[in-house]
Design brief:
alpha/beta; Rossmann fold; seven-stranded mixed sheet; 7 strands; globular
């Protein structure tokens, strides 16, 4: 993970559309306290620290190497209003009702204990405080999975696909944690010249290839790549959502 952190883009193209959903909606007020959960190398942290004057921004992530990258960015930019916490968001070392805004870009799919994390967010937020979560949704990259379907066991494919977030499921989690929530949905596309370009793309290998390998043999994935190569240009649809949750 150390090498990954060293070469991880400041703003991976994958993360940008989701982050923009949050940046379009997040309150920007002088002096507020913002917590960025799953901050990674910190593009949201850095943006919020600069866009919200005199804000206190707390970046939380257990990925220590990524936080080291963020620490160097903060020093380079001369930001004095950012605090870094290398920890799991399930236990935030913050008083009850002390935070104005919590954000998490693509974090919820990576929480092992989502309900615990959301309850902790609710605890630290003030009345009227807001939690903004972005996530990709079940149905992502349908064009790829349509080619894979039939080449792997239906049950394995269904388990792989259905671990992604859904709008009803995420709303239920948020409402169960005491939030009043609205949701905005959108899509974007990722285009590739062919199947080989898809399989060799760095972020695909980082974020998706291991999951594909867990349900399909190397021979099956090679067959999928060949079929996609025969089709030429590929456009993959990515459904996404931003949940804007308010403490009542």
């Amino acid at each position: 993970m150390t090498e990954t952190a060293q070469y991880y883009d400041e703003l991976p193209l994958w993360s940008a559309p989701f982050g923009q959903l949050i940046l379009d909606r997040v309150p920007l007020r002088r002096g507020q306290t913002i917590v960025d959960i799953g901050a990674g190398t910190g593009f949201l942290t850095v943006e919020l620290a600069q866009r919200s004057a005199a804000a206190r921004v707390i970046a939380v992530d257990p990925w220590a190497e990524a936080m080291d990258v963020l620490r160097r960015k903060i020093a380079f930019l001369g930001l004095t209003n950012v605090e870094l916490v290398v920890a799991d968001a399930a236990t935030l070392d913050l008083p009850d009702g002390s935070v104005d805004v919590v954000v998490s870009n693509l974090g919820i799919n990576n929480f092992d204990n989502a309900s615990t994390v959301l309850a902790e967010c609710h605890r630290v937020l003030r009345p009227g405080g807001r939690l903004l979560l972005s996530t990709n949704l079940v149905g992502h990259m349908a064009e790829f999975y349509d080619v894979l379907r039939g080449k792997v066991a239906d049950e394995a494919l269904a388990r792989h696909l259905n671990h992604r977030a859904t709008v009803p499921g995420t709303l239920a989690l948020l409402e169960g944690s005491g939030f009043d929530t609205t949701v905005a949905e959108s899509t974007f596309t990722m285009r590739f010249a062919d199947g080989s370009a898809l399989f060799n793309h760095y972020f695909i290998r980082l974020g998706f290839l291991e999951g594909w390998q867990s349900i399909a043999s190397p021979e099956t994935l090679a067959a999928v790549e060949d079929e996609l190569n025969q089709r030429g240009e590929i456009s993959l649809t990515i459904p996404m959502a931003c949940f804007d949750a308010v403490v009542g």
